[in-house]
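Hi R.,

Here's the chain you asked about this morning:
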Amino acid sequence: MENHDIKKTYLYRLFRGGILILHASTFSQPVQAIAVTFDLSQFTDGVTSTSITNSGITLTASNFAPTTNSKSNSDGLCFFGSLGSFCGYNGYVKLTFSAPVQLLSYKPGNVSNTANRYPATFSQNSNYSAEINFVDEQVTNFNNQFVALGNQGINVSAYLNGNTGSLQIRELTVETQPAAAVPEPLTIMGTILAGGLGVAMKKKKARQL
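And the predicted structure, written out as tokens:
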């Protein structure tokens, strides 16, 4: 075999290897959406801001009002409370996820007295879901399973005036949003290698003409 044929065969093999690298990395599976359940009883009691993490997503509860501190125990995080209840006088909290998620369902751990007379509203920008008729230990789908933006608060408010009792939510289930496809390092390397070798082969062929 002549020298230029050996070089041609070598370049072809390298070029084909670059294409295989490009193919393997480009068609790798994207991140899939998964359901993630947060155990709100893990929130710290008596602080102005508290966070828990599951499956790489962090959920933060803050901005408690009219009280300024969280109320949480094995029944979950307090979302509503009246004077004299464990939850105290509380009717507002902000929930913030570290990534975009779709609200799926919740599970109350404690519903007492007349906490069902008025709804608790989960809202972010123009999206909201009004929830009412809470049942102890019953998983309930959100009326509006909207997608919440990451690192932006979801305001949760309950009507306090004339209402008594308490509402604690133990579990909150959301669905992660698939990440946009991003070229992997192998994809970039394969593209450079394939492009560079393709140009080199064209130049070599041109010189032989």
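Residues 203 and 209 are 10 Å apart (CA to CA).

Let me know if you need anything else.
M.
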